[in-house]
Amino acid sequence: MERFRWRHGCEEIREKDGKKDKGEYWHWGFEFLTLCFCFGSGGQLATTPAVKARLLSAALFIAGGSDHVVLVAPYEVVEPLVKYMAPLKNLETEYPIIDPSFRKFCASHGIFSVEDFLIHDLYMLAAFAEQDISSERLKEGITQVLSIIDDMHQPWWNGMELLEDAKRNKHVLPTGIQGIDLLLGGGIHIGQLTELVGPSSSGKTQVCLQTASNVASNHMVLYIDTSNSFSPERIAYFLGKIIDVASAQAKNQILQKVMSNILCHSVFDIFAMFDVLHQLESHLRYQDAGGCQMRLLIVDSISLLISPVLGSSSTQGRALMLSAGYLLKKLAHQHNLAVLVINHTVGGEGGCSKPALGDSWKSIPHSRLFLSCVRGSNDYNALILKHPSMASGKAARFVI
Amino acid sequence: MEIWRLPISASQRGKLISAGYTSLSSLSSLSPSDLARELKVSEAEAMGILKAASHSRGAETSNASCSILDGAQSAWDMLHDEESLIHITTSSADLDNILGGGIHCKEVTEIGGVPGIGKTQLGMQIAVNVQIPHDFGGLSGKAIYIDTEGSFMVERAFQIAEACIEDMSEYNRFLRKDFQECKINMKPEDILENIFYFRICSYTEQIALINYLDKFISEHKDVKVVVVDSVTFHFRQDFDDMALRTRVLSGMALKLMNLAKKFSLAVVLLNQATIKHTEGSFQLALALGDSWSHTCTNRIVLYWNGNERYAYIDKSPSLRSASAAYSVTARGIRNSSSSCKRIKMM
């Protein structure tokens, strides 16, 4: 089993410190070449250690399916990952069975961290443990680690539970725009990624602002703004139409309460967006059950962040785009968020415009709405391009 | 809150726990050097741990929604910020009217139109008007003028500056008749001095300059407007790879938006017009194509209507689409009036 030998190489390098050049990695027997991940020069592609480590663990996840992995990455990229893996000795405080002698046994088989354990052939490990003098204790240790690992994975769900969860948590959020609500059967789905796509000035941002103001009266909303197009003035205007209170003072109070529920964050590159999303994820994980919960995440617009990195020559941009998409979907599913993203159009063949970001992005959103402006009037058109439960091609008109 | 919830690496967490720190409160009164000694880590690392700890503590104690994310702002706060912002006037009341008071700070505004419609004039006017002192409802800022076409005429800027000062003193007399004369000690020369002019001769220079602006503006904090005249010129000349052009342009737009937000300044991009063939008819459209049209927050199209110049709001998140007439006079951009029209017709 030569798998993942590189990792021990990293440990070695970290210990020897002075040797930090890329050449080091070739010493560790990478004669197999199945999968190759290259990270840009000096690891500059990924800005923060956390992002780097996540990229790498994503790479490892994919690589897990294949037998042998070659990882070509500069030291700065690998180093944080080495730190990221929980060493076995951290478990000792809680589980005394994982004592130094057990760790020594594991280390002799190249197991330093919990992750090493996961990918090691356990039958072989158990067989080796048999031959040892203190085999009982070692086996107990192995069982202990396995039970810890068992506790860590996501629980499985059956269909009934899923249905119940869908009934309880996965509602629709009304957008407050009649035409669109009717078209989508109530509004945008919680737990799903909805994309609005359309040419310039086709009402995309307006739909987002309107939805944000409609949802904010009961829930928190996060608005990730990449084009300075978030307009609080407009939100106040939309709310003014909804709130039906006579006295100006009471109205102002409600306005303040509702508008404090809308958070806006400006980001101007994709790495900043990753940071914000990870921060949001860690916040949502520890969010209390009570109080005002976040239910809507808007990214206006995702294509503006992605288009500078999406090039024909490199695959990094594509990888970033897809991981952004999956992260958004994961957030949507795990934390019961409705995610609304804006995409642009680009000129396609024959002068007609098509959604930007290409075919690989196309599979990411659950539903896609194409918006367009009806020339010569104040009306807008919405057309379903893709929806999990509706026929595509249905259209509706709406006014803003 | 427990240590294990801290957003730090597993090894650091392990070190903290083995050193006996289990709760956040136990970390509160520690200095970085003490912690570094105890955990046998570098001081910078200890500092990072303490920072994470104090941050989590902050998030725990204040139940205000803003603590969810660093740098996020609630819409209510933003509304108040926006109300206190001063807009840059265009010197034409009608134009200001449809723009909601003038050019907005913290936003990118694109102005486009056919040749001779007055894009450069408007650009120069804005570069002058941004310097109107606070007493006169201005921003009293400085301007950066990025000239890619070589169309900035300094004599013309001088003229506009003179007219602007004349207007201000007139306004002064009108407003403070019975008070002591508030002297305007601004000269046209001062105004010209406060316009930082960059001449750009190729698109690489343009990209380099936009990258440098961040540093320049942090050194000159009172810059309140960046005018790019025009953003199009070099990108229409020598670009073969259209995909690359899109990428470069959107990267540039993001940088400009970042500047606008960070330093709360207005960015005005001037764009050329082109003819586009859509649905069997030829239409006037702004250059640089579809993907560029998404990048600007506000878009104003200038066009001729008979003999009058009109401005039309093509795209804006907060303003309704509207149009207004304006004219270019010897004194700069002004309201369109019948007298001007007559002069033009003769």
From TrEMBL, chain A:
It is found in: Nucleus. InterPro entries: HRR_RAD51_Paralog, P-loop_NTPase, Rad51_C, Rad51D_C, RecA_ATP-bd. Keywords: ATP-binding, DNA damage, DNA recombination, DNA repair, DNA-binding, Nucleotide-binding, Nucleus. Pfam families: Rad51. Gene3D superfamilies: P-loop containing nucleotide triphosphate hydrolases (3.40.50.300). Residues 169-345 form the RecA family profile domain. It comes from the Eukaryota. The keyword Nuclease does not apply. PROSITE patterns: RECA_2. Belongs to the RecA family. RAD51 subfamily. PANTHER family: DNA REPAIR PROTEIN RAD51 HOMOLOG 4. This is RecA family profile 1 domain-containing protein. It comes from Hibiscus sabdariffa.
Automatic annotation (TrEMBL), chain B:
It comes from the Eukaryota. SMART domains: AAA. Its main location: nucleus. It holds the Pfam family Rad51. The keyword DNA repair applies. InterPro entries: AAA+_ATPase, DNA_recomb/repair_RecA-like, HR_Repair_Mediator, P-loop_NTPase, Rad51_C, RecA_ATP-bd. The keyword Amino-acid biosynthesis does not apply. Residues 84-273 form the RecA family profile domain. Keywords: ATP-binding, DNA damage, DNA repair, Nucleotide-binding, Nucleus. It is found in: Nucleus. This is DNA repair protein RAD51 homolog 3. It comes from Hibiscus sabdariffa (roselle).
